[in-house]
Amino acid sequence: MARLNDSGRVEAFSDGVFAIAITLLILEVKVPSGPGIGRQLLHHWPSYAAYVVTFLIIGIMWANHHTVFSYVARVDRVLLFLNLLLLMVCSALPWAAGLVASYLDGADHGEAAIALAVYSGFMVAHALTFGALWWWLTRTGHLFDARVDVEAARGTRLRFALGSVVYPLLLGLSFVSAVLTLALHGLLAVYYGFNQLPVPLRDGAEEGDDEPVVL
Amino acid sequence: MARLNDSGRVEAFSDGVFAIAITLLILEVKVPSGPGIGRQLLHHWPSYAAYVVTFLIIGIMWANHHTVFSYVARVDRVLLFLNLLLLMVCSALPWAAGLVASYLDGADHGEAAIALAVYSGFMVAHALTFGALWWWLTRTGHLFDARVDVEAARGTRLRFALGSVVYPLLLGLSFVSAVLTLALHGLLAVYYGFNQLPVPLRDGAEEGDDEPVVL
Amino acid sequence: MARLNDSGRVEAFSDGVFAIAITLLILEVKVPSGPGIGRQLLHHWPSYAAYVVTFLIIGIMWANHHTVFSYVARVDRVLLFLNLLLLMVCSALPWAAGLVASYLDGADHGEAAIALAVYSGFMVAHALTFGALWWWLTRTGHLFDARVDVEAARGTRLRFALGSVVYPLLLGLSFVSAVLTLALHGLLAVYYGFNQLPVPLRDGAEEGDDEPVVL
Amino acid sequence: MARLNDSGRVEAFSDGVFAIAITLLILEVKVPSGPGIGRQLLHHWPSYAAYVVTFLIIGIMWANHHTVFSYVARVDRVLLFLNLLLLMVCSALPWAAGLVASYLDGADHGEAAIALAVYSGFMVAHALTFGALWWWLTRTGHLFDARVDVEAARGTRLRFALGSVVYPLLLGLSFVSAVLTLALHGLLAVYYGFNQLPVPLRDGAEEGDDEPVVL
Questions:
Q1: For every residue of chain C, which 3-state class applies, written as one string?
Q2: Contact check, Cβ <8 Å, A62/B4
Q3: Interior CA angle at C78 toward C76 and C82, to 5°?
């Protein structure tokens, strides 16, 4: 993996992967065929729920990824590798959504719980890779562009980590209620869409650039 | 979701989702196998019809989306969220086209009607999300670039809403004739491709920029 | 569909569709499973042949499309619509390749002939939509940028049409030999990759810009 | 295929194909359904391994391709054709990963060996097409931009070829241990991600541009 001087192509490649993963989700929603369209449409509700929630989640992941990279001026090999791990997790979400679609119908509570636990596990993995990426960026700060207040950015690490604790909790909750767990994942995505930790900027950096960041 | 200062990346991401959704449509067209290629090819006509009509529809959706965003200079979190909902509807169209392909063959008129009603429901949902996006853009107008006559743009809201009434009508028509409903969706796409409400511009804004807009 | 002042976004959208269609081809190549991997791998040779030939064809289609659009400065609604039809044909090629993969194994010569005739029919459709697009561009020439010699470009229409005659011939040849027809489609793609009609330029247009064009 | 003066669009098209191929990998990972989610999840481990390893490999292929093309200023028809062959190999990797997923479970060592041999064969094919592309670029060097030391770049050909010998060796190793072979492919991807042959630059070319290259 190359030391790329501009981060633009890495972000374009990542954007492509996010856009494809979010669009592939629909392939995990079964198309009814054969007699009984009405009954089949109703019966597939878990796949609609998994589609909607996972679509929101990938959309927010993209927005957060985009915000962070808008402050990245240089990409080194470690960042490229961590980014690849992050994309590997996101690209697998259509599979995780398919798993939820297969087992959420309540036929077996134990199996639905396992499906949601695996699904929640992907969110834990995303939080870990995103946290590792943020940790690497703030370690020396030399990959950021000049606007970022590196010292303050380093100070956000703990809040990042604390925010991520919610995902292991949801993993545990899967064994109490699979449906509730999926709903909370959706609500959490909407919440993080509207409330994010800001990337701390130096005094005097252009107003209006106070781009909020990620979880 | 971040307040992104330039709308370019949001549009690029959206363009990617449209391009992928339009290309995934072909996966819902069954490839014949086994003896009797001729008979099978004829028998799958509903999937060809669903492919052609939905391809045109997504193509026009993309063009309209592109036109509106060419006047957007700033993206806030609400716009980002409404755009994500709009993309969620568009990304589901391969599934809706697959549903039509499965049930339009006339074996059961009632089931074909339901399939077309669901398909029309997606067009209603698209009109609603697009309308909400247009409503948000014209509310204060501060997300538009300087060329747009915000007052006049706000005045187009009613015509937008009236134009969208056609989709619930087609939903109702599904129960009269599923084939006719699909054909009308196709004709409507071509019509809106060539006849769109213009985005009203300020006096003195560059000629030739009178980009028409959307439904 | 909007009158877009710059052709860049239309080309970016089209490039996306070509890139996705070419990559989706692999989904039509069956992955063996169950006992007898060796026998299965050999048995699927028609799908490999269809993959390789269609990959080359879409690649050349993209390159030709790209060359023509590099001379397009403005996009009107008719051009947008013709381009959408062209993309509709290209996006369907994974299906056509799947059809060839299903029937080329020689179990039934008549069915293989039909499969290749349908495949060739898509090439005829591509030549027709590309020809219509070229005809529209050269009609007035006002969509071209200043480098193009419109009068001379209009003169190439006949050579375009003559070059396209080869595809109906291959459609006919399908009924003589399906395998030979597929091989000739592949050879033709390579030939047109290296030998194309040039877009005629005005005297004094920059040297080295004598981009060859399409079939 | 056109002589394109700027290499940007070729790289954008290639980036799209890499991004799609890497995201399609997940479609080859079977989603469990029916009773026994736990047992099924464990049973599908070969598809997870194939996903992770192939994701890393395509990611590194993209990074290497990107690095080389960042030094390419002009694209001729031969380069375009060699690039198309390279993309044809990469686009087929989801199929090769699916093959490994089907046969690595150890039910039959002979069949797993064949699957890994075919998989390794794709890596050989990639090394050959990449090598051919590098050979063509360094032959005259006139396609490179001014920073590249063409003479020294030509001198790297042998090291390129030597580095590629590892892939035929892994092909042979497939018949000893399929699992070990897959693991080594993964390790090799990580290794080449962090250790690459540099593209030799002229004296005085900007510091920090010593982009390493490929295997």
A1: CCCECCCHHHHHHHHHHHHHHHHHHHHHCCCCCCCCHHHHHHHCHHHHHHHHHHHHHHHHHHHHHHHHHCCECCECHHHHHHHHHHHHHHHCHHHHHHHHHHHCCCCCHHHHHHHHHHHHHHHHHHHHHHHHHHHHHHHHCCCECCCECHHHHHHCHHHHHHHHCHHHHHHHHCCCCHHHHHHHHHHHHHHHHHCCEECCECCCCCCCCCCEECC
A2: no
A3: 120
Whether residue C57 contacts residue D1, with contact meaning beta carbons closer than 8 Å, is answered with no
* Owner of token pair 């697998």: A92
CB of C151 within 8 Å of a chain B CB? The answer is: no
pTM: 0.92
Indicate yes or no: CB of B24 within 8 angstroms of CB of A20.
Answer: no
The per-residue DSSP string of A186-199 comes to HHHHHHHHH--EEP
Residues of chain A with Cβ-Cβ distance to D56 below 8 Å are: 84, 88
Determine, for residues B92 and A31 on separate chains, whether the beta-carbon distance falls below 8 Å. Answer: no
B37 touches chain C (CB under 8 A): yes
Residue ranges in D5-148 assigned as alpha helix (H): 8-24, 37-43, 45-69, 77-91, 93-103, 109-140
State the complex-level ipTM: 0.90
> Letter for the amino acid at C63?
A
Cβ distance of D99 and C213 shorter than 8 Å: no
- Per-residue model confidence as pLDDT tens for chain C (215 residues): 334 446 888 999 999 999 999 999 999 999 999 899 999 999 999 999 999 999 999 999 999 998 899 899 998 889 999 999 999 999 999 999 999 999 998 778 899 999 999 999 999 999 999 999 999 999 988 899 888 998 888 888 888 888 788 999 999 999 999 999 999 999 999 998 887 767 888 877 654 444 443 33
Side-chain-side CA neighbours of A194 within 13 Å: the count stands at 9
Residue C50 tokens read as 């269809």
Q: Is A17 on the interface with D (CB under 8 A)?
A: yes
A35 CA to chain D: closest CA distance, Å?
Answer: 21
